[in-house]
Amino acid sequence: MGRVEGKVAFITGAARGQGRSHALRLAEEGADIIAVDFCTDFETIGYPMSTPEDLAETAKLVEKFDRRVVTVQADVRNADQMKAALDTGLAELGKVDIVVAQAGIAGMKGEPRWQSFTDVVNVNLVGVINAVSVALPHLTEGASVIATGSTAALMDVSKVDVPGKDPGGVGYVYSKRALTEYIHHLALHIAPEGIRANVIHPTNCNTPMLQSEPMYRSFRPDLEHPTRADAEPAFGVQQAMKIPYIEPSDISNMVLFLASEESRYVTGMQMRVDGGGYLKWYDVKF
Fold it and tell me: Mind listing the domains of the chain with CATH numbers?
């Protein structure tokens, strides 16, 4: 028996990166998957989004674990599309036990600057609320809601000069902080129903979002066109441990824990997988 055997997971942003990794880890441990992704580029975001082919590849990889998978292209910013996506999955798989609100974008250096802010907030915050809201009527005791925050949400940006101070970057920090507060309040109100909700805060994660020119420029603003080789030494500013980034699988292992019965009484938590990044910003508080 796998750790989430017989459960069904509804995952946004599932075509690649962290979302695909979460889908595969949960499938490996026995879950069937409803995999959702937009698979469309944003004019304001300076790196390409996933493609329909990426989403199809996620499905093939899930099926290698002999699990069922339903894929849907849908925009998390649109509640009607999220409902239709979930309904498609429910029609085939019959239920939903796990919600992983993973879809997110980074608007660092995005243009037009304030539209970049809006797009980031609509995906990272409104998209989480939409995905969770359409699933809530179908969740029963033992269900788990997991949202992806960011170590950026926990930083005191007033103290230091950090990457991402442009409007798109500010939108990223704001949206991740706001979704964190949303999940906190949600967890309190669904706890009597035996449903849990938690946030995972990754540090730099080795995905196409991090490995992109806008992110390189955020970490190396002194260069006009920095490369990965230029930026990677600066990635370490985010962590206390001597690492430039973590891997998607590091987050997926926390997703699995929060989705499983091993965390049956864990709710309203801010689970940091950050290489000690939080420790660099705050003293111990008792």
Answer: 8-207+246-277 (3.40.50.720)
By CB atoms closer than 10 A (0-12, 13-18, 19+), residue 13 is buried
Q: Is 172 labeled as catalytic in the residue annotation?
A: yes
The gap from C-alpha 20 to its chain's centroid, in whole angstroms, comes to 11
- Whether 253 contacts 25, CB under 8 Å: yes
Per-residue pLDDT of the chain (286 residues; tens, 9 = 90+): 899 999 999 999 999 999 999 999 999 999 999 999 999 999 999 999 999 999 999 999 999 999 999 999 999 999 999 999 999 999 999 999 999 999 999 987 778 888 999 999 999 999 999 999 999 999 999 999 999 999 988 876 544 445 556 788 889 999 999 999 999 999 999 999 999 999 999 999 999 999 999 889 889 989 999 999 999 999 999 899 999 999 999 999 999 999 999 999 999 999 999 999 998 877 666 5
Strand bridging mode 270-273 / 196-202: parallel
Sheet strands side by side (includes 144-148): 69-73, 32-37, 8-12, 98-101, 144-148, 196-202, 270-273
> From the candidates 47, 172, 174, 245, which is the catalytic residue?
172
Half-sphere exposure of 97 (CA within 13 A, CB side): 20
